[in-house]
Amino acid sequence: KRGLNDRPLRVGIIGFPNVGKSALINRLLGRRRARTANTPGVTRSLQWIRVATDKNTSASGSRSTRNGGGMNNTRKKGFELLDSPGIIPSDMIDQNDALLLAACNSVGVGAYDNQAVAAYLCDRIQSLVLLGKDTTAAPQWRQKCIERYGFDPMKPLSEQNIAARWGSENTDGSANTWLAFAAANQDRIPSGEDMLFIVADNRCKGDPENAARK
Asked: HEC string of the chain?
């Protein structure tokens, strides 16, 4: 209507939890306006944040700071951004998608099994290495496994000086069980679950839950 300013453009920022929605808004503003942290669930409600820009115009349309009468013709132009909580589909059929979200810290730690997520992440990174994509996705992963945890995730189990458990499903703990499992699997490279148990044995006194958190 005549006499009313145009309504500013409104833009919604939506996505999975903890992917940087609020950080993007702060970057656009050039200052910290939206609360951020490396934890999912920090943003708990909808919030409109105005991004204003000053645009100086004269009556003829050319840029000017003051008109003939000495009045400032500055008009506030800009848009509004909607900062929103993260959204996760309620019917996630593929559990690999859920595990990936957990590995990316997009799900609260109380909502998933640490060991399952850690094993899945190791399997996924190993797949990228086998596909030759590790230089962009995880360039230091293999070397860090060797330096920090004492094993090579890309070498067969039999070629490494590691404990003999390797993630066996049998939990009776007998030496014969572990040796039999080792003999049957000596020529394959470690799986994600194997890596979890190797780190547990080498660095966490046999505790796979502690290893998963590392």
From this structure: CCCCCCCCEEEEECCCCCCCHHHHHHHHHCCCCCCCCCCCCCCCCCEEEEEEEEEECCCCCCCCCCCCCCCCCEEEEEEEEEECCCCCCCCCCCHHHHHHHHHCCCCCHHHCCHHHHHHHHHHHHHHHHHCCCHHHHCCCHHHHHHHHHCCCCCCCHHHCCCCCCCCCCCCCCCHHHHHHHHHHHCCCCCCHHHHHHHHHHHHCCCCHHHHHHC
